[in-house]
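=== RUN LOG ===
request id: a7f3
mode: sequence -> structure
chains: 1
length: 456
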Amino acid sequence: MKYFIITFGCQMNKTDSERIAGYLEKNNYNSASTINEADLIIVNMCSVRQSAVDRVYGQIKNFKKLKQKNPKLKIILTGCILKQDFEKLKQKYLSKKNQGYDYILPINSLPRWKNILKQKNMFSPKNLIYANFQKINEKCKLNANYLKIAPKYKTKFSAYVPIITGCNNFCSYCVVPYTRRKEISRPANDIINEIKKLIKNNYKHIWLIGENVNSYSYTEKNTNKKINFSKLLYMTNQIKGDFWISFSSSHPKDFSDELIKTIAECDKVAKYISLPVQSGDDKILKKMNRPYTIKQYKNIIKKIREKIPSVVLSTDAIIGFPKETKKQFENTIKLFKEIKPDMAYVARYSPRQGTPAFNMKDSVSLKEKQLRDKKLTETLKKIAIAKNKKYIGKIARVLPEYERKGYIIGKTKEYKTIKFKIANFNPQSVIGKFVNVKITNAIPWGLKGELTNNKL
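=== RESULT ===
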């Protein structure tokens, strides 16, 4: 039997897919090189953004064709699934034969999938009711059993390692607390052991991930020792080997002085921090249920830059939140000009059913959102190019990741994208290995350079 996984969503969805792959291969499934070869297709979805949900619906037409060619093909839907999305999928597609998805399984029930996969009638329609889905979802919380499943990593040099899942923040626009449930921190020893195995296998870049890594908190049962995120970073930094440590995502309310000190002192921890602000206006932040003010946010940025002068800062911003005025949007522009982020993820607000913001009138038109998006992006572009030009002439240690259009594309330790060419072009001679690159040019969203033997 062969499987094929389609993943939509964030880093957590990607690492979940790696664990699904590892689990299936342990249970005698093999990876299909193309979707057409698959006997089992898993769609790992994300209900956080409507665009991702739309893509899940968009797969249906193709699935119908695949089932006509292979009547034995079965398709599982899993991931971050809202009740509303489940109901729509069930009513429209699951009640009819060969109409797309056959079964919906909570991602947190993965340890039990083998029992379902062995059933001859595993896709029985009687199981396709939300009550059962919800019951399984509540019973199978993301615990050690789920995260202990050995993943099949996508690359041989960079790996996502989940340390916490779920979210307790309930931002008014976000569905994650309703799909991932409450925060559950993974045992520290499990995390450290997974990283040690990766380093032993010559992995170079370790990403500690979670919806909010800053709130990681685990108490060891034997010693009653409490480990927060700062202590976990120190523990990871002490592992022997030549590798980088990065992390995401962070929340300003949990970005402590202790954490800033830890990042500054740990040599393996990348001096790259993504700290989403979401809006530059206090009133909008309050409506978003983001429990900090712009003054407090700027104070955190000030502390970070005082302790870590070389830091590369990234942020997130949502534009066109319900009733966001032009003046309030201009406050976001003003904030960007003040804090000067190296990069940012800018998203146009879209209503998500089930969140408090859904009940607010989506008063900003699509056209206005597009104009604001363009203006904020242009502001960021000017800041980014000025920041990147400062790197010209310097030598950076780079981890090459892939080849595209004759260039090797990689990342610096500070997560700057860089592209360069190599003599006697052979991508595999450098991909996944640390190299030194002299930076020769700067563009808004990255750097250009040339391979060099000079040591850092």
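=== NOTES ===
Confidence is low (pLDDT under 50) at residues 121-131, 140-144.
The longest helix spans residues 366-389.
=== END ===
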